[in-house]
Amino acid sequence: MPPSNLYKTHTVSSNYMKTIAIILFTFLTLASCNEQIKQTNRTKETKPSYQNISETSISLGEHNALLHGKPTADNNYLLYIRTARDATIPKDDYYFLKINNQGDSIHCLPVRFEYSLTDYIELDSFYIVVTTDRRTMGGYTKDFLNKYDKNWKLIWSKKINHPKYPDGSTAVTLTRNNELLVLADEFVPKTEEHGMSIRRYHLDGTLIAENLMLTKELTYPISITPSADNHFYVTAGQYDQTTGIPSLWLIKLTQKGDTVWTKKHPYFYAKQTIVTSNENLVFYGSNFSPPAEQKNHYEYIKIIVLDKNGNLQWQKEMKQNYYEKPGNCLETKDGNYLFASTITPIQNKGDKAYLFELTKKGELTFERTFDYSVGISSVPYLIRTEGQITMIGQKWMGKFGEPFKDIIQITKLTD
Fold first, then answer.
1. 3-state secondary structure of 372
2. Is residue 355 classed as helix, strand or coil in its secondary structure?
3. CB proximity list for 248: less than 8 A, separation 6 or greater
4. DSSP letters of 5-69?
5. What's the confidence (pLDDT) of residue 5?
6. Rounded CA separation 55/409 (Å)
7. CA-to-CA distance for 310 and 182, rounded, in angstroms?
8. What is the pTM for the complete model shown?
9. How confident is the model at residue 403 (pLDDT cuts 50, 70, 90)?
10. Helix or strand or coil: residue 242?
């Protein structure tokens, strides 16, 4: 073969080999990139959420019971705590504990109310508190509207002289006109009718206007939540004494307490209402199983999601344990819903704190059961704090047969 042809053949072979090498290199590079993408996605999918960052505890006595919690005017969280210094002596003390937006306790003051605390709101320089005289020996109760300064010194107290049921409730909020909107269950002795009262007060406790919404069912307010259009969503409960059916009664009110519309959803005991970023309403609560199912699950969690006009989007029931007691819920940073509850598993009678997350469509994406026992009849509260989520609840430190001994547990979780 002539030298020129040999050179040409060698050049062609060399170019062919280079092409094969480039193809192989490209293939391996793409394969490596794909594997890195898969690994990244896998890491993203399995990234742990709502895991412990830290745990701290607060104890004001031998037995600490978390009774109530709600946001404050300065973006903190106010907890109402009952404590017994000695678990063997039936004497209770009460405290308000404030948690800041880093999830740390910043303020704790003792309080003493003449009657039972029912609802409260914090304003810039004082508190408005509703208390209820339940010492009636089975008779009807009465509410008191009170004003306290920031050190919990009583400024004034006004008796709302209208009868209520012994286990009734009252809700209070501040309107845009700096008026107090107070809703309460009410009974009319002369006609033996019952319903829900709507009253507005000046900040000095002077009554502005009142209205009574009569109902056939036993009715009680649960919460008042501002809407995006400057109205209020009122979450109320109703109980039909004839059928035994509990219902969610949703009312939209103006700032003056006038009714815009009402909706009703049966078989539901509402606990909490939130308005989401897309103006949906999430109702967190529970119901009780029919007798035939109560061996497996007695009380179960139920969630109802409505649009801003009160139309049903979806609802979900959680029946994984014997008891499912709702705590509270919040919207996550990606628009899902995170719920706290207390559960009593069927095979394990100890009460446990339990977290679960649902998507906007109600799909379960996360659940976690904490390994410690919580206090009897207590539920945890979730607070959105800076860069994390804080869960506050009771932790049982005693043993069966011993006097109750609980601490307040503050657990900071990854967001």
1. strand
2. strand
3. 235, 236, 237, 238, 264, 265, 266, 268, 270, 283, 285, 304
4. HHHHHHHHHHHHHHHHHHHHHHHHHHHHHHHHHHHHHHHHHT---S-EEEEEEE-SSSEEEEEEE
5. 41
6. 7
7. 22
8. 0.85
9. low
10. coil
